[in-house]
Each structure stands twice: as structure tokens, then as C-alpha cells.
């Protein structure tokens, strides 16, 4: 069997939309799982909207996600000659024709077609005199494809048999009045020239597929296979857009999501393994992926799930990696300096070990300043809730006990806390909550006794005495 050749064909006209990233991912997973070739084609023919920045964003996003393609990227703008040749071939074979209708005429024709519930009929059979008159008038002309009668049918690799009545499809433009080819023509020509055998893309391209198939047929080329995944919807059921929140890979990257999370999450937007499993590593996804698992029902982009999944992926990282992730964040917050890192690696590893089970995103590491600095103030709500009239007295007793400890290991701290609570005949939480507030300034964080062991006796005592002074 000849090799399967896939392509990912982004248009660099804006950010790297998660829908495009998902298309790239499905192509990549297919290529890796089934052993196919994945080519990258940059669709840069829309020069008015093309930007170098957008191309860079897409390429950086692909490499951040770990989606690699084979060979050098193809730039669509370099295939102009082939596009023009195909247009000429279509004209020569009678599969396309010059159309001279003006925008105003087309407007009227469209209204008539709508009223008659049929497609627009362009003048396919102009006489030589009509053509000469239009040319003399200086009218602009476009090249339109002569849509044949009948149906266009393909067996979609994801959706099964798709049948489009050609009668629904009007003679579409293949070359504009300046001679430049339009999207559908350029894609068909490039897919052919690149030897593409399977086009995997989003459902938003479904209506382009019959047109592209007709072009392949008219040009006498083998038609590739097609597979269309789902649309991605926002939580209100409409197509995912900016009003639902972040829609680009870069935004999620900037929010501290891990590449392996996005990789995992995007795969689940329109595919499932068939069992309940949702957390996958790169290699597990490559292994488990199959076309049979692709969905046909549209998929909701669930931010809560993305956040949850990120936590799961954070926990799959080795703790040394979390330390590496945290260092630039802590340096940028001014809590540690680059020069400290080597000398403090053990302490930083202890902190990371404590935090890892609780992180949702790497950005959460920005809320961990209490490991490095004394809190400057105390969360008012938490203070109100946990600071009672007898708290100062209890805390003072607790400070004495902590001061007397020879070893400040987690179990020792826990032991002394529970003993004192027992002696005072109260729940340990009456000590735990105010202590956490004194140490962290906030009412949440890692398990208190582990935290105290990492902060050390001196720091804990200093902070608790300060709280007593300020609040007591
Ligand atoms: N450039 C098109 C897009 O970004 C994709 C073309 C295709 O997959 O056929 O939507």
C-alpha cells in the first residue's frame, strides 16, 4: 500500500486558534499512530491578511505542543504557477468559464435565486459578441467552475458516506479578476502536487470538500480521502469564539497551562479512547489514538476540565521538572535570585514537592510567596473567621511548645500540636487555622505540618510572634 500523506495547512492571518491546533494534533496523532507522513503547508496567499507574526505564532505553538511535521514546510504562495496552470486547464477543458456579471447584477440574481429556491445561475454560454461587448466595456471577469449535474459523494473517514447534491452548489469562482486563484482551487492543486492522500480537518471545511472533489475530478486527478472532525463549541453551545474567553494556544500557554495538557485536552475535543480514561501522556495518545474513536457530535470546550487536566499533568511531571518550572517564576517575582538556585536546590525541591499535589497551573506558583517572605498582611476574612478572643492565649502556649522542640520534623510538629489541643480539650483546627494565617497570610495552602517543617522552626516562630503582635 502506498504511504498515507497528510498535511496541516494553517493560514497565518491571526493567532493560533485552538481549533487549528486540534486539527494539527489529529493529523499528527494519525501520522504517528498509523505510520504516515505529515506535511506542513503554509497557506499564505491572502497577502492582505498574512503576517509574519502570525506564522511565527503558529510555528512556535506547534513546537511548544510537540507537534512535528515531516520535511520542509511548503509555502502556498510559491505554487502560483501551478494554480494558474490548473485554471487554464479547467478553462481549456470547458470545466470553467469566464463570467462577467457585475456585483450589482449578482445581487439581483441572488435575490431571484432565493425567491425561486434554487442556486444562482451564471451565464455559462456567452456568445463571442457578448464577450467582445463586455471586454469593450472594460468589465472585470472572474473564472467560475462549471458545477456538473449529479451528486458529489465521498466516504468520510470519520462521518461515513457524505452526499451533496451539486444542484445546491453554484458555479464557484476559481480565479479572481486579477487572476489570483481562490482557496478551493489552491488547496486542491497543492494537495495534488504534495501527493496528499488523506485530508483530516475540522467540520467547518465540510462544505468545501465537494468543491475540491469536483476540481480533482475535472483536473483528472486521484481524489484524496477526507475525514472531518467536529466543531468546537463554547459552553453556551455556539461556535467557540473570543467571547467565550481565550481561543488561542498562546493565551493558554501564557496562563501557565502545560503543553502536555493542551496536547491531551485537544485530543479529547472530538476523540475518545472508548474507555473512561482521560489523562494521557504524549506516547499513550499516539498509541491509543484511532480514527474509530473520532466523534461526529460537536464538542464543548470545557475550561474547568482543562484546568483539572492541567493539575493531573502537573502531577505526572517529575518533581525536578516542577522545580525548573518554578525557578523562573520565583525569580521573576523577586523571591529568589538566579545565583541562589544551586545552593538552595534542596529547599526548592522540598517546596516543589509540597506544592505539586495542589497546583492547577504553573501560574499558581505565583501565590506561593510565603515560602520566601513573611506575609505583609493577613487575609481579613480568614482573620475574622479564625481569630477569636481566646486565640492569642492559645497561640502563645503553642509558640512555647514549638520553641521547646528539638526536632522540627513534620511528625514532631504534628505531635506537639495535637498534644496541646488535647490538653486544652479542643480541636487541633483551632490552632491550625490561625497558625496557617500567621505563616502564609492566607487561609489556604499545603498541609500545615509539612509546610512548617519546610519553613523551619525559626521562621515559624518569628511569623507566629508577629501575628500575635499584630492581631492579638
Ligand atoms: N488554510 C485553511 C484553514 O486554516 C485550511 C485548509 C484545509 O485544511 O483545507 O482553515
Q: Brief description of this entry?
A:
This protein is mainly alpha-helical and 472 residues long. It has helices at residues 18-34, 52-65, 80-92, 103-115, 128-137, 183-193, 208-219, 249-254, 259-268, 282-288, 303-316, 319-332, 345-355, 380-386, 391-403, 410-423, 429-440, 448-455, 457-471; strands spanning 5-8, 37-42, 74-75, 96-99, 142-145, 151-156, 160-165, 173-175, 198-201, 225-228, 232-233, 299-300.
Describe this structure in words.
With 472 residues, this protein is mainly alpha-helical. The protein has four domains: 1-71 and 230-305, HUPs (Rossmann fold, 3-Layer(aba) Sandwich), CATH 3.40.50; 79-183, Glutamyl-tRNA Synthetase, Domain 3 (Glutamyl-tRNA Synthetase, domain 3, Alpha-Beta Complex); 317-366, no CATH class; 380-471, Arc Repressor Mutant, subunit A. Helix content is 47%, strand content 10%. The chain is built from 19 helices and twelve strands. Strands 1-2-3 form a three-stranded parallel sheet. Strands 4-5-8 form a three-stranded antiparallel sheet. A two-stranded antiparallel ribbon has the order 6-7. Helix 1 links the parallel strand 1 (5-8) and strand 2. Helix 9 crosses helix 11. The longest helix has 17 residues, at 18-34. The model has no long low-confidence stretch (mean pLDDT 96).
What is the terminal separation in angstroms?
80 Å
How many discrete structural domains?
A: 4
Low-confidence stretches: none
Question: Shape from CA axes?
Answer: elongated
What descriptive keywords fit this protein?
472 residues; mainly alpha; Rossmann fold; Glutamyl-tRNA Synthetase, domain 3; elongated; binds glutamic acid
Amino acid at each position: 500500500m502506498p504511504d498515507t500523506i497528510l498535511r496541516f495547512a494553517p493560514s497565518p492571518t491571526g493567532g493560533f486558534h485552538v481549533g487549528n491546533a486540534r486539527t494539527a494534533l489529529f493529523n499528527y496523532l494519525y501520522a504517528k499512530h498509523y505510520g504516515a507522513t505529515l506535511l506542513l503547508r503554509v497557506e499564505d496567499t491572502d497577502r492582505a491578511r498574512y503576517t509574519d507574526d502570525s506564522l511565527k505564532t503558529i510555528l512556535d505553538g506547534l513546537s511548544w505542543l510537540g507537534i512535528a511535521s515531516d520535511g520542509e514546510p511548503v509555502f502556498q504562495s510559491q505554487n502560483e504557477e501551478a494554480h494558474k496552470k490548473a485554471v487554464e486547464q479547467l478553462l481549456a477543458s470547458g470545466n470553467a468559464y469566464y463570467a462577467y456579471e457585475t456585483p450589482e447584477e449578482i445581487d439581483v440574481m441572488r435575490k431571484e435565486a432565493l425567491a425561486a429556491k434554487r442556486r444562482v445561475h451564471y451565464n455559462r454560454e456567452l456568445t463571442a459578441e457578448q464577450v467582445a461587448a463586455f471586454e469593450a466595456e472594460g468589465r472585470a471577469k472572474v473564472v467560475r467552475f462549471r458545477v456538473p449535474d449529479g451528486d458529489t459523494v465521498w466516504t468520510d473517514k470519520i462521518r461515513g458516506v457524505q452526499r451533496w447534491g451539486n444542484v445546491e452548489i453554484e458555479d464557484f469562482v476559481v480565479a479572481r479578476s486579477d487572476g489570483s486563484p481562490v482557496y478551493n482551487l489552491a488547496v486542491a492543486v497543492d494537495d495534488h502536487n504534495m501527493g496528499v492522500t488523506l485530508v483530516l480537518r475540522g467540520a467547518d471545511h465540510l462544505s468545501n470538500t465537494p468543491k475540491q472533489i469536483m476540481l480533482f475530478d475535472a483536473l483528472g486527478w486521484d481524489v484524496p480521502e477526507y475525514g472531518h472532525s467536529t466543531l468546537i463549541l463554547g459552553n453556551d453551545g455556539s461556535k467557540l469564539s473570543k467571547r467565550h474567553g481565550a481561543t488561542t494556544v498562546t493565551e493558554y500557554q501564557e496562563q501557565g497551562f502545560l503543553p502536555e495538557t493542551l496536547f491531551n485536552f485537544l485530543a479529547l475535543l472530538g476523540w475518545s479512547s472508548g474507555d473512561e480514561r482521560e489523562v494521557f501522556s504524549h506516547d499513550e495518545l499516539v498509541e491509543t489514538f484511532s480514527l474509530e474513536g473520532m466523534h461526529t457530535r460537536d464538542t464543548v470546550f470545557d475550561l474547568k476540565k482543562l484546568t483539572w487536566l492541567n493539575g493531573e499533568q502537573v502531577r505526572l511531571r517529575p518533581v525536578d521538572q516542577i522545580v525548573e518550572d518554578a525557578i523562573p517564576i520565583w525569580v521573576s517575582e523577586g523571591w529568589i535570585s538566579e545565583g541562589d538556585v544551586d545552593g538552595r536546590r534542596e529547599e526548592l525541591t522540598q517546596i516543589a514537592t509540597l506544592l505539586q499535589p495542589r497546583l492547577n497551573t504553573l501560574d499558581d506558583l505565583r501565590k506561593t510567596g510565603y515560602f520566601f517572605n513573611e506575609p505583609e498582611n493577613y487575609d481579613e476574612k480568614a482573620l475574622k473567621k479564625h481569630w477569636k478572643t481566646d486565640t492569642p492565649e492559645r497561640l502563645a502556649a503553642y509558640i512555647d511548645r514549638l520553641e521547646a522542640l528539638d526536632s522540627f520534623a513534620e511528625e514532631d510538629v504534628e505531635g506537639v500540636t495535637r498534644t496541646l489541643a488535647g490538653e486544652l480539650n479542643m480541636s487541633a483546627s483551632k490552632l491550625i487555622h490561625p497558625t496557617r494565617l500567621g505563616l502564609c497570610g492566607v487561609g489556604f495552602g499545603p498541609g500545615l505540618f509539612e509546610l512548617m517543617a519546610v519553613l523551619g522552626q525559626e521562621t515559624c516562630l518569628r511569623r507566629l510572634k508577629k501575628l500575635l503582635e499584630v492581631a492579638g
